[in-house]
Amino acid sequence: SFSISANDNFNNAVQQQVNLNLQVDGTAPVVTSIASNRADSTGQQYIGSNTTITVNLQESGSGFSQKKVWLDLSSVGLEKKQANYCSPGWQCVFENISIPLISGQRIITIDPESSDDVGNVVTGTLVLQIRADAQGPQVQQVVVQAFRNGQNVSQPATGDTLKITATVKEASPSLTAAANLSSLVEQLDALDGSCQRLSNSSDTWGCVFETPAISFSGPFQTSVKLRFTDFIGNSVDYAVPVRVLGVLNGTFNFWSSSVQ
């Protein structure tokens, strides 16, 4: 408790004893883990495009509502970044981290000035070893085959299907692919492809797209946009030119005769 005394301009005085319960927080928070949203089956952490990093903390006092936690990202070519938000638990989340074009093992640290809401500096696990990868997949070759009634034809026409095969170089653990076919097939702007590593020890992948029948009437020239995305979230777009022939309906007589 403590005493408060006050006087006004007419020398009227008052004194009152006040009881106040104060909670003292002098305990340093402890960082228990730092993790990227990209980690492979071996536990290797990655940072690349649109990465999220989460810091878990043990804290029983004032908490982290003021988000006074920063990551030092200088090793991956970025400035210090403050947490986007912290939630009771305590967990502080750093979103939308995209690094410049660098690669290799890097060290990310929690800034030593990070603290809880009353200024107790964090302790514990302040370092994360992470692999930087901002390089997107590299498309090496794309082959387009056309099929009519199950038979391979030299050039596609309206009603035919396509098989698009891409050879892609990518070192990360997984690769996904999607094709925008809206210029060939009505309302089909995302067809997933199937990607497989060509061998366990290879960085080369084979991706295959098998399309439904071309619905727009030819002849016309267009392109199909393929997008390849690696495990870290790095993407590359590749445009494939496609020429579609028209279809003639009916019976035609191409013979001519004359008498001389």
Description of the molecule:
The structure is a single chain. Helices cover 0% and strands 48% of the residues. It has 260 residues and is mostly beta strands. Strand 1 and strand 2 form a beta hairpin. Mean pLDDT is 89; it is low at 21-25 and 250-254.
Given the structure, what is the number of helices?
0
For the biggest β-sheet, the strand order reads 8-9-5-3-11
Helix content: under 10%
Low-confidence stretches: 21-25, 250-254
The global form is elongated
Quick one: how many beta strands? 21
Could you give the distance between the termini?
129 Å
Radius of gyration, in Å, reads 32 Å
Beta-strand content estimate: over 45%
Classification by helices and strands: mainly beta
H/E order of the elements?
A: EEEEEEEEEEEEEEEEEEEEE
Overall pLDDT score: 89
* Sheet with most strands: 5 strands, mixed
